[in-house]
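Hi,

I'm pasting everything inline rather than attaching a file, because the server keeps stripping attachments. The sequence lines come first, and each chain or strand is labelled.
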Amino acid sequence: MFSEALDKKANEIIARYPVKRSALLPLLHLVQNEENQITKEGMRYVAKKVGVEMNDVFEVLTFYTMYFTEPIGTHHIQLCRTISCYLRGAEEIREHLEKRLGIKPGQRTADGRFRLSEVECLGSCCTAPMFQINFDYHENLTPEKVDQILDSLP
Amino acid sequence: MEMVKLTIDGKEYEAPKGKLLIEVCKDHGIDIPSFCYYPDLTPQAACRMCLVRIEKMPKLATSCTVTVADGMVVTTASNEILEMRKGMLDFILGNHPLDCPVCDKGGQCELQDMAFDHGTVYAQYAVNKNNTGEERLSPFIAFDEQRCVRCYRCIRVCEEWMDVHALTKIARGTHEYIGFYGKDLSCEQCGNCVEVCPVGALLSVDSRFKSRPWDMKETVTTCTYCGDGCQLNLGVRGEEYVRAASKDMTGINGEFLCIKGRYGSAFISSPERLKTPLVKKNGQHVAVSWDEALKYTAEKLAAVRKASGDASLAVIGSPRLTNEANLTLARLGKAFGTPHLTHFRKMELGDFWKNLSAPIGTHAEVQEATTVLVIGGDPTEESPLTGYSVRYAERKHDADLLVVHSRPIKIARRQADRFLHIRPNAESAIVQALVDEASLDQMAKTAGVPAADLRAVREAVHKAKNLAVVVGPQVTGAALKALARLADVIGKSDDKKMCFLPMAGYNNSVGAFDMGLTGNAADVREKCGQAVKAVYLVGANPVEQYGDGWKTALAKLDFLVVQELFLTETAQLADVVFPVSSYAEQDGSFTNQAGQVQRVARALEGQGQLRPDWLVVQAIAKEMGLNINAKGSAAALLKDIGTEISGYSGVSFAKIKESNGAFRTSRPLAAGTAFDPILADLRKQTGAIDTNAQHDTRVVEQGEGLFKLGTMLNQVPTMIEAQPFWDAHKGETAEWEGEFVAAAGD
Ligand code: SF4
Ligand code: SF4
Ligand code: SF4
Ligand code: FES
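And the predicted assembly:
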């Protein structure tokens, strides 16, 4: 179900910890990256891998906000809403994104290309306002810059 | 045990080192409010109600996680602590709907008590409440999220006591709730989570909104299903049965119950219950008076006896009946002078008793065992308290758990240190390997298990310091006898402890044997219509349970009497049917599979003209002019048992009460009888095993045994309504644990 390469990586991660179950969080990220979400199969895989119950996995993944049990979308826009970005116009960026994408934070566009999330401080206050798309930072945002960035995405 | 001295609220106490501070306080009557602390659950420290001040600790400490140490100085009540409690309660009540007037728990709720004792009148913490409705999680369990105090007792009970892991916490913060992955709560439906829930958050669907706790009369009695004999509290409002709950921590089962014990008793108020005696006239059952039915039955039986002799009558009792009922049936059989005196059963306990080399253990003893061998049965599905006890030994002190079964049962998959996955019907081969080392390699082949594994099991059993052997009905014939002799084979010594616990099947399997109904039921079936002309059958439905052979056999009789709760397939064939009291409508006793005599107590009158079985039997005897030493009450009959039945010496209702509800019977150990003939028979038995038989690798599904409906469960509305639910979840266990690999033989 999951590739051998992924399984190898999972084993490497597990080997880093003195107890297997400590690898639960990184393994959830691993399967989420693979499937763009965490499916029943992914949960099961992780549960077996670290020797916990299905419900233990579910408990953990509902506790954290960065795990998704439905497809995330191709581009996950994570807009900082903490104080520095807020003071420097994050709200305006949010409104612009909402208008352009037609979705609210926590939602995904119908074509599955974009998801918009509001997140807490990403540690880039000196370049506020900012967002992170998947793993890349985009800083000193203005509505125009946002358009450029989105237009340039595949 | 090492003791330590500590000071609590200025007074000095001695306590065992390592004990939780909250438990030490409770032992000495010092009240510490708590929600998440619960006996026999791992500490959680979630509710913060139990905070105390301990000298030299920088902050208030949770007494439910701190263990006592020498010289500890503790304050449990001060302004600081009282204020803190108020504050904690304020948070806990922050989301609470305060709907006590419609809550099942009202009047028996720990949160109500707590708010009363430790709360404030006005809340400081004023935020909007999360409004959530009540949700039905399964046909048996409902959940009202807003009432939850997040103590996580339910989650821990399900994990630790049940090993089901059905519940967990979902989301976080003020939005956290108790839930699970998936659409419904697909679990063993034991309701133990409901039992321990301190508030009305988890609820039993079957008794919801039916009564307030103080409106119910509660009667302590013994469960009428499996042989474990859990103690129940039957709640009755007016004359209406409401619910069964576990008896407050004091019975042999503590607070444990399984689905049958907790949700299986509504049959007593089924409209299908027989209400009057029935006599067959022109092929139709007609309601008649007790007098007429008794007279008619007595005449008919007397006529058959006169025409065809004493041995033409057969008496068949049941492991469902009370000791008192089975005693009177045995007396009736003896008065008839018939050799056909028997009952239906799953296990030949007579053979087992005769060869007993170690005592029968109680559940508590199994829980203490350091090595547990489970062979020939599935405790989880057939004998849930035994299953709980085996898991307890594993959980509490990591007992060495050895499991022998022909299918991957739950404890084999999840707890066993060693699992011998044998071929179908090959239990005897394992028994032989245990008692006859020379044959071990051959027996491994016969049973289809790796010889090394079998040797390891044999070694563990022989070397065990405190061994419990849990034996189920699939160990039969010579194997059962040989296994009973195990302690002799191993050799006894002072530093070795051993006990047996048979999983006998029914609530009074042991009692039915002890009262003397020891004949062979199959033998009666063979003789029906020939040597046997009339059968007196009580509390059993062989036509449904043991097949068409019985239907044809019973049809050949001149006369059939049945005493029953319902017009079963067997009762339909009867010439006379007597409506009798269920376990909830009479006094008496059951002997559980651990050999403990426990009370059956009358919780309600019942509808119609019901009589207890023993009373009917005595009335028949009287009509026939037979002296069966009739008594006027179950109490008097139990006294007779105490003088007549070996091992029951001195038993009475008072004695049962004195023994904390469970009077222990004694059984002589087989001393000195030859083992060789048994071994010879055992070799024959193992020689007949089909060594070509394939291993049965089908994972035992959750509920395979537990959810099966019999005569009584078939009349429980929630059980019937649950059928589609179970059908929908069939195959899930296999889906998740299908990769459980069968240990293939060499
Ligand atoms: S009913 Fe029993 S098995 Fe089901 S969730 Fe509650 S404790 Fe667990
Ligand atoms: S449902 Fe009951 S037992 Fe479970 S956490 Fe809530 S209050 Fe505690
Ligand atoms: S374990 Fe047996 S005795 Fe206990 S509640 Fe269940 S069926 Fe009744
Ligand atoms: S009882 Fe100690 S924190 Fe709940």
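Confidence is low (pLDDT under 50) at residues 741-746 of chain B.

If the labels don't parse on your end, tell me and I'll reformat.
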